[in-house]
Write a structure and sequence with these properties.
The protein has 742 residues and is α+β, with helices and mostly antiparallel strands. 39% of the residues lie in helices and 25% in strands. The strands form 6 sheets. Strands 20, 21, 23, 24, 25 and 26 form a 6-stranded mixed β-sheet that branches. A 5-stranded antiparallel β-sheet has the order 5-4-8-7-6, sandwiched between helices. Strands 10-9-13-12-11 form a 5-stranded antiparallel β-sheet, sandwiched between helices. A hairpin with a 5-residue loop joins strand 16 (431-438) and strand 17.
């Protein structure tokens, strides 16, 4: 108060002033007469108008011990100051000190609440906002008193609102919960902030009378945690799903963690690996080198290392892995664990070994090998040549590498062949050519070149490989052979023309001889003369048959013989032919068997036609088999085979006529078999069986024949889309198989 001081109503602290002396006193500063006290005699309060004479003051202190002011009384008159006055002054000063402390604490609490980083809310029983600290604006963008009286739950994110309302109702019901609730609250700008909230029920306290909510903005922490979780998840996914094997290994070698790629590579589960160490799965021959590098890393000599090593899988197989190992240490430098990256290089090592073998093959190959790039614009450059190439061409590396293959060509190299090679290179296709090249000393030589394109994984042409072989001798032999073939063809053509002309010339006198012989047979002659005429007619007919066969052979060789393919019934033709051959067979005491049982006509255990797969077998006189053939030529072939089976059989033997159907390349075909029980044909003579005029020594047996029938039959069978083959064993007889389309 300023009672009694008049115009001096503001107390200024100074060394010579009463308040300063009071602050320095321990308990009470008492000045009975200020004009007589040397400390204050010159004070403006004492020398001025209405001078102070009496003063008594007590310092105001807070519990911490600090002195924050004074509580004092003063007067311009001298006063008595009794002990009761003294006690009263001390009591009033203590009351003032407590009030100062209360106000300081209230101001401090208000400052903390208003300026603190956390949001303090007081909600009514209905959820309306009663009080909001100043941080309400900083956190959610609303002024502290802007939403007073309004419900706060609409600000809560819809996904979090039900939980927030349930927690609020629990607080109203007195169910106090200490754990925090994290929810999203809407900012004034429409975004959401994450708040960590704790609530207390203070409805029963008259000074508060509401639900106190303390909220902390944890948006950044949530985002950081979310990023951390994302990072952890990405790491987990990258660790587990990486195609590259990743493992954590203790300094002792024990497996700590291993991702899926490592487990699949080694064939173990992660749990199985964790019960062992890397030493137990390392190939014994690579273990010392691996352990040596691990020890060097633990001693600090190297921070990391790489190597290729072999592992023994759970299945006992040996696989190759390329490892990159880094040692992780703690802040003090102590080893924590090894981070090991493992890549399966088994296929690569196998490929490298294969390439090494291929390189060895290329180096030591007897054929020359040349590799060029695929640059056609500037001409492909040679990048590799093997030893055989240098030996063949007499060039060396300095002469060849970096040059184009044109360095091997010369004045007489065929331009058309060079153009063909350029075309093949441009089209990227493989090709084989023969070209005249030149050695380093100028010697020409013929070389056969097989060009092969090399493509990368994207099917792009990258290189060419040329396999080269010196064919100079072959070219010389080929020239000689071509000349010989031309001479033989000319001779054969002359022979065919001669045979054709001579056969035609033979027919005229033969027809006359046969005509007059037939007339003589009807004339009344002596028996001996009739016999002579019969010999003349028989010889003439045989000669005419020979002429006809020679003409057929000549026509086939010249390509002038044609056949008329029609459906032919085998049964009808077989009946006719067997009736024709039966008298001839009976003269020699032969039995004719038409059968379908393979065991009755196969030689020993041999099956016909290189063991074809029989579709069915049937009696040729009963089955309705129809083949595609020229009927006249088919009859000619079968008559030839049946007559041979009679002529070359044993006396009292047998001959068989049978049929089968077979399937070749999805097509059903007929097999007609003619078997005899003769002496058979030696294996070395079978290859000459189809040669014209080759009788295989039968001319010494007195058996009639020309040696043309089988050769003609073979060619006729081929001409009709079929074939004729023979199987024979000495002492067992022979089977001739005629194959025709069904």
């Amino acid at each position: 108060s300023s009672v009694g001081l008049g115009e001096i109503s503001r107390i200024v602290r100074a060394e010579s002033y009463f308040c300063d002396a009071t602050l320095k006193s321990r308990e009470l500063c008492f000045v009975p007469d200020a004009s007589r006290d040397p400390r204050f005699a010159k004070s403006p309060f004492v020398q001025g108008q209405n001078p102070v004479r009496f003063f008594a003051g007590v310092p105001l202190a807070v519990p911490e011990g600090a002195r924050v002011g004074t509580f004092c009384v003063a007067d311009t008159k001298l006063r008595e100051f009794s002990e009761a006055d003294r006690e009263l002054l001390l009591e009033l000063a203590a009351l003032a000190s407590r009030e100062v402390v209360r106000q300081r604490r209230e101001n401090l609490f208000r400052a903390l609440v208003e300026n603190g980083s956390e949001l303090l809310l007081v909600l009514s029983e209905g959820g309306a906002l009663v009080y909001a600290s100043r941080s309400f604006e900083r956190i959610l963008g609303y002024a502290a008193n802007e939403l007073l009286g309004q419900a706060v739950f609409p600000l809560v994110h819809p996904d979090d609102r039900a939980v927030a309302v349930a927690r609020f109702r629990a607080l109203l019901a007195g169910q106090s919960r200490d754990e925090a609730l994290t929810l999203r609250a809407q900012h004034r700008d429409g975004t959401f902030r994450w708040l960590e909230c704790r609530g207390l029920n203070r409805l029963g306290e008259h000074t508060i009378g509401g639900i106190v909510v303390n909220a902390r903005d944890v948006t950044e922490q949530v985002h950081a945690y979310s990023k951390l979780e994302e990072s952890r998840n990405r790491f987990q996914v990258a660790f587990e799903e990486s195609s590259l094997g990743i493992a954590l290994v203790a300094p002792s070698g024990q497996w700590l963690r291993a991702n899926r790629a490592v487990c699949e590579f080694l064939g173990y589960t992660e749990e199985e690996l964790q019960n062992t160490d890397f030493q137990s799965v390392t190939h014994p021959e690579d273990l010392d080198a691996d352990v040596g590098l691990v020890q060097a890393a633990l001693r600090g000599e190297i921070p990391r290392f790489s190597m290729e090593k072999r592992y023994i899988t759970a299945r006992g197989e040996t696989v190759w892995g390329e490892i990159n190992v880094t040692l992780a240490r703690d802040a003090a430098g102590a080893p924590l664990y090894f981070v090991s990256q493992v890549q399966d290089i088994t296929a690569r090592r196998a490929q490298e070994e294969r390439l090494r073998l291929l390189e060895s093959v290329a180096i030591h190959a007897s054929d020359a090998i040349l590799i060029t790039d695929a640059d056609l614009e500037n001409g492909p450059e040679i990048i590799y040549a093997n030893r055989a190439f240098y030996e063949m061409t007499l060039f060396d590396e300095a002469d060849i590498l970096g040059k184009t293959p044109r360095v091997l060509q010369g004045p007489h190299t065929c331009p058309q062949t060079r153009a063909l090679m350029r075309q093949c290179l441009a089209q990227g296709r493989a090709h084989t050519v023969e070209i005249l090249n030149y050695k380093k000393d100028g010697t020409p030589f013929w070389v056969e070149i097989s060009l092969a394109p090399i493509l990368d994984g994207g099917k792009k042409l990258t290189h060419w490989v040329a396999f080269q072989r010196d064919v100079s001798r072959r070219k010389t032999d080929q020239t000689l052979l071509q000349n010989a073939l031309k001479t033989a063809e000319d001779a054969n053509r002359a022979k065919s023309e001669f045979l054709s002309r001579m056969s035609h010339e033979f027919r005229t006198p033969l027809n006359a001889i046969l005509g007059f012989a037939q007339l003589l047979e009807t004339a009344p002659l002596h028996e001996k003369d009739h016999q002579s005429v019969g010999f003349i007619r028989h010889a003439g007919e045989h000669l005419l048959e020979l002429v006809d066969e020679i003409l057929d052979i000549a026509r086939i060789e010249s390509g002038h013989l044609t056949v008329e393919i029609t459906p032919v019934s085998l049964r009808e033709m077989a009946v006719e032919l067997l009736e024709w051959v039966r008298p001839l067979a009976q003269k020699r005491g032969l039995e004719i068997v038409a059968c379908h049982d393979a065991s009755s006509f196969c030689l020993a255990d041999a099956a016909p036609f290189n063991s074809p797969e029989f579709t069915s077998s049937c009696d040729i006189l009963e089955a309705q088999l129809v083949v595609l053939a020229d009927a006249r030529r088919l009859r000619q072939i079968l008559l030839n085979l049946l007559s041979n089976a009679v002529k070359f059989n044993r006396t009292g033997g047998a001959l068989s006529l049978c049929s089968h159907t077979v399937t070749r390349d999805g097509e059903r075909r007929a097999l007609i078999g003619v078997r005899d029980s003769g002496y058979g044909i030696a294996p070395e003579q079978l290859q000459n069986l189809w040669v014209p005029f080759e009788r295989l020594g039968a001319e010494q047996s007195g058996i009639e024949g020309t040696g043309i029938g089988l050769a003609l039959s073979k060619n006729l069978a081929l001409l009709m889309g079929g074939d004729l083959r023979c199987e024979s064993q000495l002492g067992c007889g022979s089977i001739f198989w005629l194959e025709l389309p069904m």
